[in-house]
Amino acid sequence: MADYKGYNNKLLRVNLSSSDIRTEEIGEDVLRKYIGGTSLGYYYMLKEICSKIDPLSDENRIYFTTSPITGVRFSGNGRHSVTTVSPLTGGGTSSEAGGWWGAALKLSGIDAIAVEGVSNKPVYLYVEDDKYELHDADDLWGRSTGDVQNILKQRHGKNARVLQTGPAGEKLIRFACITNELRHFNGRGGTGAVMGHKKLRAIVVKNNRKALPVADQNGVGDFAAYLNRNMKDHPALAPHRQLGTQRFLLPTNAGGMLPTYNFRDGSFDAAEQVSGEEINRLYGDGSHTCYACAVSCKRKMKSIEGAEVDTSIYGGPEYETMAMLGPVLGIENPKAIVELNAVCNAYGLDTIAVGAAIGWLIEAMEKEPDLPVFEGVEKIGWNEPDKVFAIIEKIMNYDGIGALLAQGTRAAAVKAGGSTMDYAMQVKGQDFPAHEPRGKWTVGLGMAVNAAGADHLVAAHDVVIDHPGDAGPKFGGADLTDIEGIGLLEPLPAESLSAKKVRNFVYLQQLWMLYDVLDWCKFTGVPETRSYTLKHIVEIVEMATGWKTSIFDLMKCAERTINMGRIFNNRMGFTSSDDTLPERMFEPISAGPLKGHSIDKEQFEKAVELYYQMMGWNERGEPQFGKLVELGLEELAG
Amino acid sequence: MKISISFYGNLIIHRTEANELKRQIQIPGGMTVSGLLVSYGISEKTVKAVCNGKKVDVRHILMEDDYLQFYSLNSGG
Q: Would you say which domain of life the source belongs to (chain B) (predicted)?
């Protein structure tokens, strides 16, 4: 790997306290072992953050990483990871985003950026090939993400790619996100607040190089052509082009798993009104795409007359946003959902966390209005979008109840007391996304044991692997035959945490993590929508890097990454007691097709224990020495 | 007889247009969910069905004015 095909072998290290910027070689051994994305991020986290820290202190660092296939021209491949200590959870978080910025970074000649220290004034980092500069950002501070993008593109050219935190990050809202090109988000974990604390408003990357040296250029070209052909008429990806993730709301509702009224119910009477179909009919304006991708799943919205924020510049709401700002809050008005999405994106707020925090507030004020924290607070009920807009303003200004919510749902519930923690829909402080584990139990297991907390992208959802896999994707369902290659040989019921289900989860968690190690879009590759096979993953890594590898080798890297997240969290003080779910998950769903369904608590607790055993972790959830050695992590043994 | 039908998720390729929420169709009396799926070329193994708000088996016999929703689910979103 002497000439580093697929890589630049370059980390850009930026110290904001001293304004020192330098490049470092990452090194052949590190790249081969950790590959990229989340894994490379955690490699640096474990090396450089050696004791428990305050996420919003000088000691926190933030890492932007790519992989050997980032920026290589084929679909699903413009992504990057952001890894840091989460202000929301206090543990490690790694959040991935699509778009254009990751590919631009890689093509500019850098694989990763490490940012440390805190600037004494607002700045932004400008990267153009071998030029790395910190620029004054006084004129950007306090402005919306849309304004900042406009200013920076006018200054550096239309093809400059802008990654930024927003006003929410500047104000250290614990669920501030990072956006690139206004429509793609490192949404979870409060990574935007870390940038804000460092007074780093943006990272602008401009690349003049159009292609990355790879080991087998012809092979990559053939693969790209194969993907484009396959994706164009792929029966699962054609719908993705038509409606993107917005098409998920109605089937999730039909299945009784659409979080409604803060996860109390599993279906929403007004689902059709707030569906992707209706939002597109009323406000849709076509689609746009990420770097080099043939799918084009991202939705565009028209400008809505009279809206406070121009809805046309921030893209349309994804499924998660639609559900969290719609049914979770009881909101029946599609226009309000589109506008709330734009407002959150202009501020740089994670829409999932906003929905979860306000959903919790509505339920708490309904059930426990006499709690001291609600004294003097104007009541908010379900389906009151005007009040939701007002609460977002309060969050942004730490005003009254907004100051409580700005800390995140868990912190708010701790302060509120009463029984509010039972329906604070979060794990480790990170809010539930719009998925109902009571209808797909290993999704609950995944949310519980995941290092970053509640996350829907940890493994395949039970409901796509609960049926025989011999029908193939052309029938609109999942083609599961390919995952036989990692040992998943039989369909298993969605509402179970049997030993076989836990084993399936272990394998699928590793496969899903592999996508984050490679920063490759899950929608192009996961079984139910995939347009390539497990063998293709191996081949493309080999074609990019020139390595000899295998699915075993790559999944070992993914397993190593899961363990690194666990070790990091143990270092931050997390224990097995953090691997749990809100009490609501063990209580019956109140309404909808899954009315009365709940997760069996005893099965869940046994499943967590069994998961630890399968992972080679002790009863405290700590990787045992033998597992560390097996994964090549023995230097991290405690 | 007349029933209403919806296709959700990846099954939207069976709609007459992308934003279609529901349409009415005519089917022979006594037709099962399975039979209807066959008529659309959809494998019963990979989709789920709800009839009048309740999950149903593919052997379910359809009745006049039934509202049938076919859906497939995805991981994530």
A: Bacteria
